[in-house]
Amino acid sequence: MATAGDVFTLIRERGETTRADITAVTGLSRTAVAARLAALIDAGLVLEGEQAPSTGGRPAIPVSFNTHAGVVLSVAVGISRTRLAVCDLAGTILRLSDIDQEVALGPDDLMPDVVKGLDVLLEDHPSATVYGIGLSLPGPVDRERGCSRDSPILPGWDRVALRPYFAERFDAIPVILGNDANAIALAERGGELEGHSDLLVLKASTGLGAGIIAGGALQRGASGAAGEFGHNKIAAAKGRPCRCGDTGCLETVAGGWAIVHELQQRGYTVRHLRDVIELAIGGDPEARRMIRDSGRYVGEGIAPAVNLLNPKVLVITGDMAGAYDIFVAGLREALYGNATTMATRELEVVASAYGGTAAPVGSAAMALDEVLSARAVDALVAR
What we know:
The chain is of the alpha/beta class. It has 14 helices and 15 strands. The protein has helices at 4-14, 19-26, 30-42, 107-121, 164-167, 180-190, 251-254, 256-265, 273-281, 285-309, 324-338, 341-344, 358-371, 374-382, and strands at 16-18, 46-48, 62-65, 71-77, 82-88, 93-99, 130-137, 141-142, 147-148, 175-179, 199-204, 208-214, 217-218, 313-317, 348-351. The longest helix has 25 residues, at 285-309.
């Protein structure tokens, strides 16, 4: 039998519906629907509107998801920048800020600044109920323990529990941890691409990673390492040392960190991939060449994944998307030259709907999927 949480999920998915529709979909009696709606309205999650004009029967009373019932906090940790946001319960960013700090300094240096930054963002929403905190990291994570797991790109973070950093200021508020590309994939699935059940979301920034939606479900893999394609081996990278400690990884010729390093060796004053993107947009021929080459290498690297998964849409996000046309020109060339015609015949390559805010929106989406799940809402109503 459908619970209050199940009824809420129905309302959340539709945005607005009616008591009659809920009765028809769930099979509950009108009395049971009324009781569940009363509990959801008391919890502030659902709003009931005015009666619609009668067409001869019982007048329809619209009920809708109250997206302003509270907020979720979003933390998207990157290698060179961490993005913080306050979002409503629909995942819309209400306020955004950045911490430009190298993640290599370790959690003891970064996480206290993260908590302080969230506190500052909440000054505009002093009475808002905080439902949860979404925290995304590059690389594999242990979702249960709430830590980075065996990630060669996060020195000092491995197996360090991150939830305790929030405990003093945000006690009892759930902190949901996930991989950054997976978080963005959840956001894309629920945004403009809603209805597409097979997506491959490619995050191309300092490093390379992918989020996989197959059959409508996020695929994390047996050990949470699904999508770590940046460390696949390709011929063009043979012998090149990678930051993971191995050699020959795709990232050594296509990752933002490798491009920045090569340009620095040539005398360019660049610190981050974002600097390279600005040069490319400004017309610098070397920066444009390297970004296009990165796209070619990535296209070659993901062609087997396209053959294997046959996604409907390939979404490009991350800092590299700032030079989307240049990057994707190279990517298309190699992808369509290496993947099968059958796998690419209906494939759409698109930019992220969220642009530069994809990471914080994704972290919020990850949190919302947990704290507004039917199970979580049932627990909230019971309290």
